[in-house]
């Protein structure tokens, strides 16, 4: 079946990998990438596919109802892959309303326009909402998040994502909108904006700058290579059931401090620095407010029902990621010039 798909946030980290996968794997699909190009959106992420005949980029805001209506009328989308979001927890602590606006209002705007556009024939349509494990709250030392875990968001970011998830399910229940959802653990890989832990530390190691570890570094995250995440989205988009939710995760838990030490070790060797050099950059700083202790995903539903499994061991994925950043210093320079310095000083000075 041919499809005309709207991908939102396709110029961001996960969105760019998703757009690349769909544009190259499905030449019969028409892909329209709608992105506002906030600080996190970057068309350099898509240089290799920007001229593909089945790809088009449109700059715009998902909260702009009139604009979204016109876009649907023009392209007659039969599917939406909704990635656009404000995605950084620390920014949500300083500016929660920006998160309500894009993550909640923006998602409801898309849902409303999709519902109105598809009202005469919902059959064959798909509204796929990409979400996070953070909606489930924080785990203690044991246990995993399953699809049945009660929502318990604890940061403005996760509260806004939880709200958007609820609206997606409400549109399915109330209007029969054909939706699918997935909740994924922490991603890492190429094109990751250096405000997030892994690319921030890679950038700082390259520049011999301190590596800021919040609190004691004992918080645990479950890391998944971004290409494995978008492969899971592909499987769920094509084979997952309408109205259902799938958890995606790496079964790959690391405390922040163990992860940063592994990064330091690999980068000592890649940068020809004596063993132990980079670890000296580790600096413990004031903890994140309301810092969730541990996230860990049970992805067995996705494995058992749709056959998806992560493909990469973490050490290998991390090594590939570091190599990408070392080979793409120009990309790193572009995204860290301008406003990045101001952001960095505001977030880390005096911490
Ligand atoms: P990102 O911040 O790298 O990219 C977000 C993109 O959305 C950017 O290109 C930005 O320009 C665009 N955008 C923001 N506001 C917009 C608006 N109002 N209108 C149109 N475009 C807008 O984020 P990411 O890390 O790629 O995350 C993508 C999605 O995946 C998000 O929904 C996030 O909640 C979810 N997610 C992320 C992770 C992760 O580890 N990064 C894990 C699980 C789920
Ligand atoms: O400088 C830092 N120092 C530090 O110790 C930063 C930026 C982070 N941290 C800690 C906080 C977290 O425990 O590292 C861990 C990872 O932090 P982030 O990279 O900011 O990710 P996280 O807060 O876990 O959220 C991410 O995963 C889930 C994404 O940003 C979300 O979009 C996704 O939904």
Task: Tell me briefly what this model is.
This protein has 351 residues and is of the alpha/beta class. It is built from twelve helices and twelve strands. The chain has a domain at 4-188 and 224-251 and 294-313: Rossmann fold, CATH 3.40.50.
Structure description:
With 351 residues, the protein is α/β, with parallel strands linked by helices. It contains twelve helices and twelve strands. The chain has a domain of 233 residues: NAD(P)-binding Rossmann-like Domain (Rossmann fold). The strands form three sheets. Strands 3-2-1-4-5-6-10 form a seven-stranded parallel sheet, with helices on both faces. The chain has a three-stranded mixed sheet with strand order 7-9-11. The mean pLDDT is 97. The structure holds nicotinamide-adenine-dinucleotide (NAD) and thymidine-5'-diphospho-beta-D-xylose.
């Amino acid at each position: 079946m041919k499809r005309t798909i709207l991908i939102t946030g396709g110029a961001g980290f996960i969105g760019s990998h998703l757009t690349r996968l769909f544009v190259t794997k499905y030449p019969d699909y028409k892909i329209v990438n709608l992105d506002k190009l906030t600080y996190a959106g970057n068309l350099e992420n898509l240089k290799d596919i920007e001229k593909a005949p089945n790809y088009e980029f449109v700059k715009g805001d998902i909260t702009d109802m009139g604009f979204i209506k016109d876009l649907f009328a023009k392209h007659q989308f039969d599917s939406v892959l909704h990635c656009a979001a404000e995605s950084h927890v620390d920014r949500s602590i300083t500016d929660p309303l920006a998160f309500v606006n894009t993550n909640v209002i923006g998602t409801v705007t898309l849902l409303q326009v999709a519902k109105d556009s598809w009202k005469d024939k919902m059959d064959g349509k798909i509204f796929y909402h990409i979400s996070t494990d953070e909606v489930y709250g924080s785990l203690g030392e044991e246990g995993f998040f399953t699809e049945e875990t009660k929502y318990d968001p604890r940061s403005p970011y996760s509260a806004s994502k939880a709200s958007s998830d609820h609206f997606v399910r409400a549109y399915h229940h109330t209007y029969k909108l054909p939706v699918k959802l997935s909740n994924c653990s922490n991603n890492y890989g190429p094109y990751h904006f250096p405000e997030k832990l892994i690319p921030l530390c890679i950038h700082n190691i390259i520049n011999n700058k301190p590596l800021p570890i919040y609190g004691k570094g004992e918080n645990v995250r479950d890391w998944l290579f971004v290409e494995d995440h978008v492969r899971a989205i592909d499987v769920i988009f094509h084979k997952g059931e309408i109205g259902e939710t799938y958890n995606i995760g790496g079964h790959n838990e690391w405390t922040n401090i163990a992860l940063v030490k592994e990064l330091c070790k690999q980068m000592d060797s890649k940068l020809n620095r004596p063993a132990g050099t980079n670890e000296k950059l580790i600096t413990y700083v004031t903890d994140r407010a309301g810092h969730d202790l541990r996230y860990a995903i049970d992805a067995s539903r996705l494995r058992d029902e749709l056959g998806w499994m992560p493909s990469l061991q973490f050490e290998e994925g991390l090594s590939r990621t570091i190599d990408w950043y070392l080979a793409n210093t120009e990309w790193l320079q572009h995204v860290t010039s301008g406003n990045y310095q101001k952001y960095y000083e505001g977030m880390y000075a005096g911490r």
